[in-house]
Amino acid sequence: MEKPKTSGQYTCNEYREEMILLGLQKRLSSKGLTPEEKENLLKEIAKVEKQMGI
């Protein structure tokens, strides 16, 4: 579901999605994750990126 762009305004929801994505990516880069945890994080990252349209 792609979001319509509104005259270049940066919304709170866009900021929130970016922060969620950054947090997930940071968790993915941490050491000591099990393969299952990595897989779950990758799925969640893909889900957020799809919501963001990237």
Describe the structure.
With 54 residues, this protein is mainly alpha-helical. It contains 2 helices and no strands. The longest helix is centred in the middle third of the chain and has 18 residues. The model has no long low-confidence stretch (mean pLDDT 90).
Short description:
The chain has 54 residues and is mainly alpha-helical.
Secondary-structure blueprint of this entry?
Blueprint: H1 12-29, H2 35-52
Helix pairs in contact: 1-2
Which word captures the global form? Answer: elongated
User: What's the rounded overall pLDDT mean?
Assistant: 90
Write down the Rg.
Answer: 13 Å
Low-confidence runs = none
Q: Provide the helix percentage.
A: 55-70%
Distance between the termini: 11 Å
Structural class: mainly alpha
Oligomer: single chain
What is the strand content? under 5%
How many helices does DSSP assign?
Answer: 2
Major sheet description:
none
- N-to-C SSE string, H for helix and E for strand: HH
Q: Tell me the number of strands.
A: 0
